[in-house]
Write a structure and sequence with these properties.
The strands form three sheets. Strands 1-2-4-3 form a four-stranded mixed sheet, covered by helices on one side. Strands 5-6-10-7 form a four-stranded mixed sheet, with helices on one face. It is globular, with a radius of gyration of 16 Å. The two termini are 26 Å apart. The chain contains four helices and ten strands; from the N terminus they run βββαβαβββββαβα. Helix content is 34%, strand content 30%. The protein is α+β, with helices and mostly antiparallel strands. The longest helix has 20 residues, at 159-178. It has helices at residues 34-47, 64-82, 133-145, 159-178; strands at 3-9, 13-20, 27-30, 50-57, 91-98, 101-108, 114-118, 125-126, 129-130, 148-155.
Length: 197
Amino acid sequence: MRKARIERKTKETGIAVEVNLDGTGAFSIATGVGFFDHMLEQLSKHSRIDITLSAEGDLHVDQHHTVEDVGIALGQAIAQALGDKRGIGRYAHAYLPMDETLTRVALDISGRPYLIWRVTFPTEKIGQMDTELFREFFQALAQNAGITLHIETLYGENAHHIAESCFKGLARALREAILIDEAARGEIPSTKGQLGG
């Protein structure tokens, strides 16, 4: 089974996360940041990765450490659950419309982390969450999951729609990339014979 559990504790945050890559999209998520919880629930539901996640962070300071460290822990859990990545599709992309917004997400589970982030928001906050923190989350996730991740919002006006299209786009692309390709089951999807570096 492609499952993993990560516990990460620092002076700024304490995070426990479990993932099941072959799940149904079931989730239980509590970070203390309401809109962020909503986005992570979208990620779980539309990727069909079961995610159980609890985070306690220094929210009396701000939300930065909590959001970034959730990205780190969730990325580590995904990487651990993927193992040596035998048989996965590896590449995938998604165009995700949400009303007036369209976002494109393309990714490669390469073991070579990189983020291209071409997303701007018309407001500084959505609810109580700073919109600048979304980039921090995706950067931490890509770095720790070993994913080359490109996210670009092609157009959009509503900040909520823009954020949600990024998370749902990631979910749909990730869902396809982690699926086991039956024609290549047991094979490392690289001519190098390994992924990473």
